[in-house]
Amino acid sequence: MNQEIFLCSICNINSGTCLEDCKFCSQSVRYKADIERYKQKEIALIEQEAINARDNGALGFCLVTADKGLNDKTLKFVCDVAEAVTKVAPELRLIACNGTATLAQLLTLKSAGIKAYNHNLETSEQFYKEICTTHPWSERYETCQNVNKAGLTLITGGIFGLGETQADRVSMLESLASLNPTSVPINFYHHNVALELEPNSLTVDEALALIKLTRESIPNTQRIMVAGGRELMFGERQNEIFDAGANSIVIGNYLTTAGREMHKDLEMLKSLNLQVAKKV
Ligand code: SF4
Question: What is the phi/psi pair of residue 50, to 5°?
Answer without folding.
Answer: -65, -45
